[in-house]
Design a protein that fits this description.
With 549 residues, the protein is mainly alpha-helical. The protein has one domain (18-548). It has 23 helices and 2 strands. It has helices spanning 21-44, 52-66, 71-92, 96-101, 109-137, 143-157, 160-180, 192-195, 207-216, 218-241, 247-274, 278-282, 301-314, 320-344, 349-364, 368-398, 402-431, 444-451, 459-475, 482-487, 490-509, 511-515, 518-548, and strands at residues 188-190, 202-204. It has a two-stranded antiparallel sheet. It is globular, with a radius of gyration of 22 Å. The termini are far apart. The relative contact order is 0.21.
């Protein structure tokens, strides 16, 4: 992405002008609202609308109405506001699996709160440690973060591009409302020739996903799509058509290969890029007054991690080995989440939770509840990390002090953790554990977690993908997104590829348009439109559920 022209916008001249009381108040109120709505939507629709575009606009309008604001204060407010949403997602995508497997399982608010707050705190620690590497040094696209910065700058300065921004925003918002609320336009166009083989082939008519593909660019998108071709045309369709395996086996091979590839990339990144810089990354945890790569000095972090570890042992009844696996798993999966979100805009947090859960269960023969707790901690940490890295990308573009953002993240994330746990308690008390997995709250991701408590579908294929991805990464990092394409439903990859294809054609046919900022502004508007309307619909649905109760 080209550097934004920020000559006409107001920046903060000090930390105090960024980290303000009103920014935090707005962020806290927004975090509470978004956390509640995200819980309901995650349980009901088994999806999460990305909150960053909504919170960027909400923060901008709220602070501009108060007067004398700046883009950095807006940035801090929306960082605080968005932090709780993905915490809610990590919780909703995992813990209900306990009740899906056993409707009569006991609900312990203390244990659920420990899982949620523990995962959040670990995510906060690791975002501080790895932000510099992924956001600054690796300089990944982080399409959502790019778009949020674009929206704030263009919305603040006005000018000729304001029309392009809000025009595309309005079109995408209208389309999303017609699609998701009124059901007046199709959400999907299915490819029947693919679906008869069990593939989720089709086009998802999502302006947001097309915009993600455009912002990421063709180089990464085409590798991502290559993975989808391998997974669906090769494994699912080709394997079945040739008689190599049946549908169930093909599905297991596809998911295991994709997961193995993603985990292998995470291990390769850790080995090649994180460990060699361990002194700098983790120096703030052991050097007095020194932050290293960390946003703030973190000599307190080892003590906090130790306290959490002991709490996991005595409150969650997790074996010591399982706790060690969980902590190492959080370290690995937060890096994986940062990589995935940075390159694709997608954060498969529950997948990361499933992976670590599977290892811990095999190593320690965990009971169902213990296993799901592990998945919950990991998914919450990875979910928070992926979301907030977008905020940090936006902050890097806008020259916001990362310390101010991180403090906002801490406040919004911890409040979100408490609120999300409370919402789950209310639902269990009101409807009983049987509500999860029912028509009212299908909780599809949590059901998936419950279904794989027994382990990874095809272990040899998983390790084959893992080893192959490590070897290839050390040769070239170009194929990091291959695993995500293999794992994800085909329609997601295909839709994102359409955006990358538009970018490719534009760069060839209209280079001035592509090399300028107009294309990015329009793409950002498309992202904002679907993101904002998606959040509004989520809020309305949450209110309807609450009033019906």
């Amino acid at each position: 992405m080209m550097a934004l022209d920020q000559s006409q916008v107001k920046h903060a001249s000090s930390f105090k002008e960024q980290f303000t009381a009103r920014a935090i108040i707005i962020g806290v109120v927004g975090s509470i609202i978004l956390t509640c709505s995200s819980m309901f939507v995650a349980l009901k629709a088994s999806s999460l609308p990305w909150p960053i575009m909504f919170v960027a606009l909400a923060s901008m309008f709220a602070l501009k109405a108060m007067g004398n604001t700046n883009v950095n204060e807006i940035n801090v407010a929306h960082t605080c506001m968005s932090a709780g949403a993905m915490v809610a997602g990590g919780l909703a995508f995992t813990i209900p699996g306990i009740f899906i497997l056993n409707n009569d399982a006991e609900f312990s608010i203390l244990k659920v709160m420990l899982v949620t707050v523990g995962g959040t705190v670990l995510g906060l620690i690791f975002t501080s440690l790895i932000r510099k590497h992924f956001v600054v040094e690796a300089d990944m696209p982080y399409a959502m973060g790019q778009a949020a910065a674009e929206v704030v700058v263009v919305g603040d300065e006005g000018g000729k591009q304001t029309g392009a921004l809000f025009g595309s925003l309005g079109i995408a918002g209208l389309w999303t409302a017609l699609r998701d609320w009124f059901a007046a336009v199709p959400a999907m166009t299915n490819f029947g020739f693919m679906q008869k083989f069990g593939s989720m082939g089709g086009i998802w008519w999502s302006p947001m996903m097309i915009a993600v593909g455009y912002l990421i660019g063709p180089a990464t998108i085409f590798v991502w799509f290559l993975g989808a071709v391998i997974g669906d045309f090769g494994i699912l369709m080709g394997g079945q058509a040739s008689g190599l395996w049946d549908a169930a086996t093909a599905s297991g091979i596809k998911s295991s290969l994709g997961l193995g590839w993603m985990v292998g990339v995470g291990l390769a990144i850790t080995a090649k890029e994180i460990i060699p810089r361990a002194k700098s990354i983790f120096g703030g945890m052991f050097s007095k007054g020194q932050a290293g790569d960390a946003i703030v000095p973190m000599r307190w972090a080892p003590i906090v991690i130790l306290i959490l570890a002991v709490s996991f042992i005595f409150v969650l009844d997790l074996p010591v080995v399982a706790v060690i696996i969980t902590l190492l798993g959080v370290w690995l999966t937060t890096a994986m989440s940062s990589q995935c979100v940075g390159q694709s805009g997608i954060n498969p947090m529950e997948v990361f939770g499933i992976f670590v859960m599977a290892i811990a269960k095999v190593a320690c023969n965990l009971e169902v509840t213990q296993a799901v707790f592990v998945a919950g901690i990991v998914a919450i940490a990875a979910g928070l990390t992926g979301d907030v890295m977008n905020d940090f990308k936006s902050g890097s573009i806008l020259h916001t002090d990362p310390k101010a953002q991180w403090y906002g993240e801490v406040i919004g994330g911890v409040i979100g953790a408490v609120v999300a746990s409370g919402v789950m308690l209310v639902l269990v008390k009101a409807y009983g554990g049987g509500v999860f997995g029912s028509e009212m709250f299908p909780a599809a991701q949590a059901a998936a977690v419950a279904s794989v408590v027994g382990g990874i579908a095809n272990v040899p294929v998983f390790f084959g993908g893992l080893i192959a991805s490590i070897v290839i990464y050390f040769i070239t990092p170009r194929f990091t997104m291959l695993g995500l394409g293999i794992y994800l439903p085909f329609y997601l990859s295909f839709t994102a590829c359409l955006g990358g294809l538009v970018r490719f054609i534009t760069e060839k046919a209209a280079p001035k348009f592509a090399q300028g900022s107009t294309g990015n502004v329009i793409a950002s508007g498309l992202l904002a439109g679907e993101g904002c309307v998606g959040v509004v619909i989520a809020l309305v649905q949450a209110i309807q559920i609450l009033t019906a109760a």
